[in-house]
Amino acid sequence: xxxxxxxxxxxxxxxxxxxxxxxxxxxxxxxxxxxxxxxxxxxxxxxxxxxxxxxxxxxxxxxxxxxxxxxxxxxxxxxxxxxxxxxxxxxxxxxxxxxxxxxxxxxxxxxxxxxxxxxxxxxxxxxxxxxxxxxx
Amino acid sequence: xxxxxxxxxxxxxxxxxxxxxxxxxxxxxxxxxxxxxxxxxxxxxxxxxxxxxxxxxxxxxxxxxxxxxxxxxxxxxxxxxxxxxxxxxxxxxxxxxxxxxxxxxxxxxxxxxxxxxxxxxxxxxxxxxxxxxxxx
DNA sequence: CTACCCCTACGATGGAGCTTCGTAGCAAGG
DNA sequence: CCTTGCTACGAAGCTCCATCGTAGGGGTAG
Lengths: 136, 136
Known about the structure:
Two copies of one chain form a homodimer.
Chain A: H1 6-18, H2 24-31, H3 39-51, E1 55-60, E2 63-68, H4 72-85, H5 90-99, H6 103-116
Antiparallel strand pairs in A: 1-2
The first copy, chain A, binds a DNA duplex through residues 4-8, 23-25, 37-41, 43-45, 47-48, 61-64.
């Protein structure tokens, strides 16, 4: 997974926000409103992101149109998973993690957990999209 | 800011595993069992980790003894926090995150959530953001 | 058909951070 | 006094990311 550099992040950010296939030209023009940047710089980096698998692309006339392979939130979740994976005592790591969470985050986390599987002790788990229905 | 290089990770890993103040000599000798490494290389990196705040140290005779300022799991939790913080829709990110979790992890997460504020509606009373720096 | 413009491909340069180690110096023990 | 072990300082080297220039190709307007 690994994280992005500055320019890489700026590019991904735009593609994620726009949520549609975009050309190098569009990205360049948008970044250029904040700072000077050469067309080829952005093109090079987008090509690197493509080759590293973060973007897909398809021809649109002469230009390529790029799309992120993963959504912003998927990417975030991937980073979190990477981080967690490096720990030995995952339960302890998760404990530390939730301890510093805001109330809203904790609430969102509870909701997310309820959606993927029944609450321990409760019998009802047939609601919601059946995605991970693995019994313990 | 976050995340370590290879050598840095190897050093932190040993300090975390040993869970006691260790000298450069001890770390060097342990790493040297796997690959060639100069004493000064390890010393330099440990000094950098110290200056960056990842390690504390105290004199023990002629040598310094180093200790991590945060435990492995605290560090992991910090990485996860960093990752989550960059997302816009945190609820969605958390949803993606838990969806790919193993059953054991989900269970550990539920337990952790219960511990910080088991009852819905009740806010977790996080007392003091105490950064642990105590060697055990 | 020709000139122009836009886009791609490729490669070169530079900087930041991590890694690597050598040399010089100091302090303790024999 | 000499050996041993540790520290301090700093010089390279390496790997990525960032930055851009130049060369080239294919539409499009005259």
